[in-house]
Amino acid sequence: MYQTNYHRASTVDEAVSMLAGAAEGKYVSGGMTLIATMKQRLAAPSDLVDLRHIASMQGITVQGRTVGIGAAVTHAEVASSAAISAVCPALCELAGLIGDPHVRHMGTIGGSIANDDPAADYPAAMLALNALIITNKREIAADDFFTGLFETALDEGELITAITFEAPEKAGYAKFPNPASRYALTGVFVAKGSGGVRVAVTGAGSNGVFRQHAMEQALSANWSPGAIAGVNVDSTGLMSDLHASAEYRANLVKVMAKRAVAAAG
To answer: Are residues 131 and 15 in the same domain?
Structure first.
């Protein structure tokens, strides 16, 4: 691991200023990806700006059907939140499936979304819930936020501070996890709300998380697992690796979507 300078920020403005003053700085929250990458000497930031102690990036609020989650909230906090569970239990279920207890108590929702790992769970939830990603500069719709493998609409130095969404009428999540990493070989989040039906797939797309529009149309007409049976999932554009072929992932998209709808009720 290369030498680096550690900075502990207490406010968003302070974090942004610290990063701007660094030669090649990086924000770090849970560090689930960055620290591991640094240990392998695949990354060598000159400075790390710790976001875990910024009060304004902590906490969960639920007002009516509007859910707000600070970017520094851990997966464990989401999983155990009674407030979120009351309006969107599927998100709690998703958070409880991430990694192992250590990962869930250190990793944060903002870090997961900003990293945009193609097999991460949260991007599918954000896309299906039509969430709004709030940064220190602006608000970005989830449809515009995820742009590719490990790529997002964030500008250099821009920082996610919170996530907000309107809780749907129904929602469910199901994933086929890698038995070692617990990352999703394929995961599907479905949501039905005032804006219609949204279906998002993670772990399968060669360009990262994506919406499955054919399933959205089928479920809009008939909200039931059986509605998905007639949907054709093309393997073109899906990932193929040592864990699963594109064709296998195409089948998993259908299977996980059915399970997600069944879980949603």
So the answer is: no
**DSSP letters for the chain:** ----EEEE-SSHHHHHHHHHTSSSEEEESS-TTHHHHHHTTS---SEEEE-TT-GGG--EEEETTEEEEETT-BHHHHHT-HHHHHH-HHHHHHHHTSS-HHHHHH-BHHHHHHHT-TT-SHHHHHHHTT-EEEESS-EEEHHHHEEETTEESPPTT--EEEEEEEPPSEEEEEEEE-TTT--EEEEEEEEEETTEEEEEEESSBTTS-EE-HHHHHHHHH--SGGGGTT-----TTB---SS--HHHHHHHHHHHHHHHHHHH-
Please report where in the chains the tokens 């602006």 appear, as a residue: 138
Indicate whether 180 and 124 sit together in one domain: yes
Do residues 30 and 146 share a domain?
Answer: no
Q: How many domains does the chain have?
A: 2
The overall pTM is greater than 0.90: yes
Report the C-alpha gap between 89 and 128 in whole angstroms: 14
Domain of residue 39 covers 5-49
Say if residue 87 is in the same domain as residue 114.
yes
Residue pLDDT, tens place only, 165-207: 999 999 999 999 998 888 999 999 999 999 999 999 999 999 9
Nearest to residue 128, comparing CAs of 170, 160, 75, 98? 170
